[in-house]
């Protein structure tokens, strides 16, 4: 049985899902040249969409409408409730519109991949049962768009000195995960200073989430990868541990996290327009960020409850 890679080994642990998918009998896919915004515009308003963002350790699944999306570098205004998406299109190597298989049960879908064929983000369309209607959409998505430089400009979230990162907003910190999955971010965390970022016991992080569940305190759950960061804001309905698998449920959103692949958990500070915040960050054996949990609600009492609960988590002893 294979063991998890320690010390930053196995930089690419995703299997080639793209080639595996295309090799299945009866599966037909069309390459998408249009921008994500063009695709999202056509999908917005459809009911029952299933959006999935994953990395080698965590998977977030959201059922409902298509989350509002913003690009890396744009001003970030997180939702007060429900789902949202942050993306860096430059890190997507390929996008496919996948038709319903004639002999299968999988619905039509739109999928985004890494250069190695690993899945980054998927949108399943179970309510779209008209194959002709989906084919018409794929025709419109086939042509590449001439996106202006202003639209593709991406703020370099790595430029400022590490000591100043804790005074930046949540959008800046999300953008720092793109491209390398947060590898460089993790490298810089010790340079923040012990008051701004400290490592904690992963089991204490799980217990803290259980406390948030009991208190029905709304939290923001984020599952990132090289190109997408999908998030959900709302109270946790369930925090369940089965062996190494941690499952979080909040409304129409569920997150599965393989704790056996989590090597480190850090607490970090950020500043969202003058409002101090704390984030619990999960890192795998390859030092890539696989999940983040923070608080972005409007209720100052619940914000204080989150902040005091997280600040009370003691640093891990060396």
From TrEMBL:
Domain Haemin-degrading HemS/ChuX: 183-312
Coiled-coil segments: none
InterPro entries reported for this sequence: Heme_Transport_Util_sf, HemS/ChuX_dom, HutX-like
Pfam families, sorted: ChuX_HutX, HemS
Record field: transmembrane: none
Protein name stated in the entry: ChuX/HutX family heme-like substrate-binding protein
